[in-house]
Amino acid sequence: MTLLSIRNLEVHYGDLIGVADVSLDVAEGEVVALLGSNGAGKTTTLNAVAGLIPASGGSITFAGERIDGKPAYAVVSRRIGLSPEGWRLFVGQSVENNLMLGATPLADRSRAAPLLERVYAIFPRLAERRLQLAGTMSGGERQMLAVGRALMSDPRLLMLDEPSLGLAPATVEIMYETLERLHGEGLTILLAEQSVELALEFADRAYVLQVGRTVMSGTASDLADDPEVQKVYLGMG
Ligand code: ATP
Fold first, then answer.
1. How many Å lie between the centroid of ligand 1 and the Cα of residue 211?
2. Where does the ABC transporter domain lie (predicted)?
3. What is the ipTM of this complex?
4. Is residue 47 in contact with ligand 1, taking CB distance under 6 Å?
5. What pLDDT digit, counting tens, does each position of 138-183 carry?
């Protein structure tokens, strides 16, 4: 079943074009990666799905319902979680408060406590540091916190913007092992990832964006074997 479907998405920043024509599908249970160089439109696409910026054209459908035009809280309450670029944490608040804020859009607030325990089981580092201020956490810990906060909305679709950016290799490994585990439990994932190698290892399928347009798509293994992808994105050939 198709969970997320984007058709001919267009996003403008004033007179500037953020995304010109992006179309993609994510099936339930799939891991889909968005690839492309800086400025290709990956962040803009994820933020538009999350309702953080308005679409100026095209459509975004989630679980059969149009969600473009809905505000961010309405999108989260439909169980789409985003771990955003730059994390957007409340740096003066504790780890636990940041996590609990992720549960705010839940219709049934009694679910927050078990979700919190689940996030702590997934990221024991966050449990150890539950009272620490988010602003004093390391980059890797902040990334875990941003993903943990997205999980607090009990997402059916987890969107991750550059989950490996700026992290030490050992932390990247922990992050991806964790994401593999969540995928194994049935979670659907859409991620933007600078590291094409990493993305194609983890994803089932991927879309390549170029100046705001989807220009290529396929299974991760087909794309990894594609000479164009190898030359432009994998530094081979
Ligand atoms: P990166 O990996 O560098 O974040 P990206 O693929 O995520 O790149 P976007 O950040 O979505 O790309 O940017 C797509 C286009 O939209 C770029 O041309 C960018 O300059 C523009 N853009 C993004 N945010 C804004 C903004 N707030 N105001 C104006 N233009 C913007």
1. 10
2. 4-236
3. 0.92
4. no
5. 999 999 999 999 999 999 999 999 999 888 999 999 999 999 999 9
